[in-house]
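Postdoc handover notes: sequence design on the structure in folder B. Input tokens:
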């Protein structure tokens, strides 16, 4: 299914609310939309399938990360648990000089993301199939990224263990969450200090057009992560640090 003229207008309007001019990127979002709705007919990539939903709750929701001023052009960023490419791929489309690694443990998802990257001709995005618990112990990747992004992957303490080991000291993690985060954040305090991280800021925002409440949690890496973290695959989710 192609993106309709009304869909393109919606994307432009929502982008403008975020201070972004998406006009030059409409062809790429439109192709991404087409590939996603096509793939969704045979593979269960995402639960959101209607045009406005894909545009606002996937594309635009991903782009809300750009309201955090630290996510600047030229960085090296990893999206942990990218699924069908969110939030990393929409940001890669609008920030061509930022390098993105899009990581997911599920091969049917990374295969889809690889197809989108290839079809769009994106030179600043690359897909990694694997688990962050393993990637973070590879010396070529550990503590090498300026930032990590993550949406809808796990609770705060688990996400901290899956992302902080990959980030350079001084870098940050942007965690996209729904309306309520305070309790999760409070419960992650112990985990953050064990991993060399600290809570920097919680931004409350509203999704353009529909106004759904969202939060962006910024974790700052302030010290190297001890080598025992992350623990073995599955353990950070099963038994979160406290
Ligand atoms: N970020 C996407 C997908 C969320 S679903 C979105 O918001 O739409 C969570 C995804 O995280 C799944 O695709 C799953 O395969 C991946 N995932 C969960 N734990 C992971 C891990 N430890 N390493 C890599 N990927 C992981």
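Designed sequence:
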């Amino acid at each position: 299914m192609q993106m309709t003229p009304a869909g393109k207008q919606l994307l432009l309007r929502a982008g403008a609310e975020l201070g972004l001019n998406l006009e030059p990127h409409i062809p790429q979002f439109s192709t991404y939309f087409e590939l996603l709705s096509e793939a969704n007919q045979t593979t269960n990539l995402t639960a959101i399938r209607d045009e406005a939903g894909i545009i606002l709750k996937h594309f635009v929701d991903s782009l809300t990360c750009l309201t955090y001023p630290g996510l600047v052009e030229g960085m090296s960023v990893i999206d942990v648990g990218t699924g069908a490419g969110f939030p990393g791929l929409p940001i890669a489309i609008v920030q061509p000089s930022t390098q993105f690694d899009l990581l997911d443990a599920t091969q049917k998802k990374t295969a889809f993301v690889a197809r989108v990257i290839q079809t769009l001709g994106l030179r600043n995005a690359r897909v990694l199939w694997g688990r962050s618990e393993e990637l973070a112990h590879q010396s070529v990747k550990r503590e090498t990224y300026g930032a990590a992004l993550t949406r809808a992957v796990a609770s705060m303490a688990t996400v901290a263990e899956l992302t902080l080991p990959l980030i350079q000291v001084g870098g940050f993690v942007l965690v996209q969450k729904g309306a309520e985060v305070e309790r999760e954040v409070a419960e992650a305090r112990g985990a953050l200090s064990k991993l060399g991280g600290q809570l920097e800021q919680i931004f409350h925002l509203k999704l353009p057009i529909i106004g759904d409440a969202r939060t962006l949690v910024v974790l700052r890496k302030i010290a190297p992560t001890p080598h025992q973290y992350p623990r073995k695959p599955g353990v950070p989710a099963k038994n979160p640090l406290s």
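Context for whoever picks this up: DSSP finds ten helices and seven strands in the chain. Don't rerun without checking with the PI first.
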